[in-house]
Amino acid sequence: MTEFESIWSDLQGVAFEQGYLDAAGVRTRYLRTGDPGQPVLVFLHGSGGHAEAYVRNLAAHGEHFWTWSIDMLGHGYTAKPGHPLEIHHYVEHLMAVLRAVGAERACVSGESLGGWVAARAAVDHPDVVDRLVLNTAGGSQADPVVMRRIITLSMAAAENPAWETVQARIKWLMADKSKGYDDLVASRQRIYRQAGFVDAMRDIMALQDPEIRARNLLGPAEYGAITAPTLVLWTSDDPTADVTEGRRIAAMIPGARFEVMPGCGHWPQYEDAKTFNRLHLEFLLGH
What we know:
Order of helices and strands: HEEEHEHEHEHHHHHHEHEHH
Strand order of the largest sheet: 1-2-4-3-5-6-7-8
Protein name: 2-hydroxy-6-ketonona-2,4-dienedioic acid hydrolase
Number of helices: 13
Distance between the termini: 39 Å
Number of strands: 8
Structural class: alpha/beta
GO molecular function, one term: hydrolase activity
Pfam families: Abhydrolase_6
Shape: globular
Organism: Mycobacterium saskatchewanense
Keywords: Hydrolase
Mean pLDDT: 97
């Protein structure tokens, strides 16, 4: 029998806080650990996701960083602006969060959509982004098959947040399809059942629209302008893009480090937290 995986057991023993802050008028939910005297690290989740994507990484990173995992703009329990969300909206929100916590500089680590936002933030705000991690990051290409799959799974889960539809969306992220991911499913189900979340999900899905996506994509000029030391982290079983695409992104970023985690899908930070935390911290601490 497989052991039951619980978000709470992942956080047991971790001195963490869940709360809300005001980021330029946007009520923003966060999970936070570490000491305010430490350098700031912000984790950014993927499209339709939430702060719990990083529950298995807070303890390890809290030893070295004032660590924040936020619900991004329009996601989770953070305020929903009520319009289609493009990358600059997320970047503006991230900068507002950093101002709200008094951070002039921060390490930013993003998965999927979060990686897209983190990369754009590093391009637009080189004075703010200290080190950058792009974890199975989006934003480098427009694959119509993947885009349709994301829209189909995400809208199905938001429009009918039954156990099966939400679980299908979670399992799509993972290499190991044998697990139920019950606690993650229950957490996301609660988020998707919020009043008005179908409209919120439509706004999140804007970046899967070919025309909107095209004007937000990052290419050689953008990646080439990144000055922050960068780790591009990919996986053997990422459902959005293969290792070749991760390697291509890394090749466009001056001096970027590239790592592949085997046996993981779109959430290596969850599926193999031990390896992720080791690679991530080695990079962030400059080892």
